[in-house]
## 1
Amino acid sequence: MKFAKIAVIKSLLLTIILLSSCELFLGPEPDISPPGILKGLWNDFNNIYAYLDFRMSHNLYYNDWHDVYYNDRYGYALRVNQNTSEENLYKECVNMLRELNDPHVGLHAPGKFQSSYVEDGEPFNLSYITPLLVNGDGKFTNFYYGKFSSANIGYIHIFGFTQDGTDPMLQTWGKAIDDIIKDLADTDAIILDIRNNRGGHIYVMEYIAARFASKQKEYLLSSNKNGPGPNDFQSLKTHIIIPANNRYTKPIILLTNKDTVSVSERFTIALRTQDHVTHMGTTTRGAFSVRMERPMVNGWFYSISTERVTDMNGKIYEGIGITPDIQVKYGNAQREDLQIKAALQEAVR
């Protein structure tokens, strides 16, 4: 009997040691209560979001990201308790993330809720432009192009830098730009329109940008967040635009608007390094980071900006956008694209 008791005691001690070891190596059980989910989400962004200082400097209601959660009157910690429903928890999490005003940030509850932050954009209607073109052609993925009937000026609209559902390294649709450039080779200038281009893949974008470059230029610096501290970033990576063999280097008018977002803004920075490019239209959105998706302990997942991007002078455009050399508003009550009109006038100078 004595030996049986000793065996039981040893077994209990071993169990305690094993449980302690599990906690030591795996960490404590995650808090999946509503306050725990909200705090975990806030903490993730506190540790790995790349633009807390820049984004919160434009917030009208909170001093910083710490204030968003801990403010003793309006902090999000006060809005959730143990009895908060899943739907209301989701709404409060979304509202908290919206304080960052970042279109790359979103929260998703598969099969239940989905949200991302997108400001109201600017109007754009390709149907205002197509009547001005001769031989307008949209047969290529993500491209519409032609020549203006009123002048020997080419037109190319790039809808985006990705093809949904396809690995970016396997996407070949961007190679159509070579045929388009050949078709427009005899024009005096091109209007390159990336209004309402919401980005895509860097690999595809740089392939296309190379067709409009006359000089090799370093155009962008990027660095990924790699630690919880505000200055924890990897070494800077330099991005270079390298002219392709087949390229268009006559005058180019680059058109942007507030719905020129993400990778299309990198495209804008790249082309602005080229002397033959004039940037017109309205200011871009100001969202440059690669968008990452990360899971949460309750089955939801969020997208987050973890990369800091600057131009070669170290200027950050996040939350501000890139202002054109020549600013032109979009249109008027006569359903006219005033940006195209101004771009044509500039192109024929």
## 2
Amino acid sequence: MTLLHCVTGIVMTVVLCALSACSSSAPRSFAPADPLPLSEFSYQYLEEMLRACVKEGVVNYPALGKDDRLQLFIWQLDRFNPNTLSSRQQSIAFWINVYNAFAMKGILEGDDPQTALGRYRAFVTHDYYVGGRPISLRGLERDLLIPDFRDPRIHFAIVAPARSSPPLSEELYVPERLNEQLNARTRAFINDPDRNHFDRQRKVAHLSMIFSWYDEEFIAHSGSVLKYIAQYVNDPVLARELTTRRYEIQFKEFDWNLNGPSPSSTR
């Protein structure tokens, strides 16, 4: 390693530590200045936007940049108190939908996940507002969704704006169908050969980095990462192998390229 590389690494560490001190965690209480009653809160704009601008997980960012519906949905959030939601299912669906809306909005506002500093801005220092309180994508995920709900399936529903992330659903997450939706998204991701594939001959599981970043959650839920995966693998023989044979795990490089065409033509 050259002196330049060492100095660069030190500088990056200092910068990231400084940025970390400025980042917000997820709030526990909310105080909207002009409260929007639960009866008036609506997902209609977000639902219409998803159907118009998302196809097979690909986000049409140029079209999204010309579509007011995402912003109309987000404007509601600063006036809405999510603590008025009455059930666990309502809360999980709400925060998943909010995370995905903010992730798309960030790209329209210039976030770029393709570099380390770009990712840090996108996930840690870029604040959005819910119920009068600032919240980052990292805070929403790490401080709220993970500890409050303890359901690893959520990782396959919240979508970072990157190609290796789970594909963005074209439909809303709704309390009435949430369990079905989370099962479907988890099963689809695990059985997608572009994201996970299994070398049966050599007994090697090539897995998404998601299973490395959040391995503690999968282990706590099922005893091991492979035991968790086996519950959703479509091939019953492979599912049995993953729990009874010794498979080596190798994690695939994560592709941070954007999950759709750049919105640059709209800015």
## 3
Amino acid sequence: MDRARHWDEVYGTRHLDELSWFERRPALSLDLIERLVPSRAAGIVDVGGGASSLVDELLAVGYADVTVLDISQAALDLACGRLGALEDRGGHAASGVRWVCGDVTTWEPGRRFDLWHDRAVFHFLVDPEDRARYRNVLVRALEPGGHAVVATFADDGPTTCSGLPVHRYGAEALAGELGPAFDLVEGRRELHTTPGGTIQPFTWVVLRCRQPNVKS
């Protein structure tokens, strides 16, 4: 399967507010980020951020070092256009955002971040080898002592999304899957209401990187 083509088609053929994961304001993500990295100079990467409004909210409260990584250029173009930064696609925009089109399982971070945010990417990695690659990138991308905020469908959540199978998790299972380099700081359950009115249970974990990272 060509992942990039699949997600380009999703974002190219449907309005944002028709997508099941759409949030007008990603309140839980923003609240966790502000609590974990209050410094507005903190380096943040939003994995699978695509067209999400999280980057808008982060900029609005003063964060100045934000990277948005997504496999879909169509999704990134929507966000870039919304923020008036299309001319800076692929580099540092005037807003302080770096837009990166790439697959998280093969991404080379090139630097370390204070916080890694992933809402609903990891649960699409149903192949154990893809999950292992994700873990390796995560460890290379985070500063020791940095935090990862990861959300997936809960144990009783949907089994598919956008025509693709997903892997569901409880908090302990998700923390365990992300590996021994991290301590589980917090786990919580969220009931997300889709634009169509369906309730989707999510599992969220906050992890702290507790061992020295390997070199990028």
